[in-house]
Design goal:
Radius of gyration: 14 Å
Helix content: over 70%
Oligomer: single chain
Structural class: mainly alpha
Number of strands: 0
Largest sheet: none
Distance between the termini: 13 Å
C-alpha cells in the first residue's frame, strides 16, 4: 500500500511538471526533450500503478 501511495504522489508531481511544459515545443528543444521525459515517467508510473492494483484485486 505504501508503494501505491508513493506512486500516486509521484504521478501528481509529474502531472504538474507536464502542465508547466505543456505547449507546442519542438522535440529538438530543451523543453521538448523534458516534455518527452515527463511523459515517459508518467506512463511508467501509470503502468506500475495498474500492475499493483491488479495484483491487489487478484488476492
Amino acid at each position: 500500500m505504501d508503494r501505491l501511495q508513493t506512486l500516486r504522489k509521484q504521478k501528481q508531481f509529474w502531472l504538474s511538471v507536464k502542465r508547466v511544459l505543456d505547449k507546442d515545443a519542438s522535440i529538438y528543444t530543451w523543453e521538448g526533450m523534458q516534455y518527452a521525459r515527463v511523459l515517459t515517467k508518467l506512463v511508467l508510473i501509470e503502468l506500475e500503478i495498474e500492475q499493483i492494483e491488479k495484483e491487489k484485486a487478484a488476492r
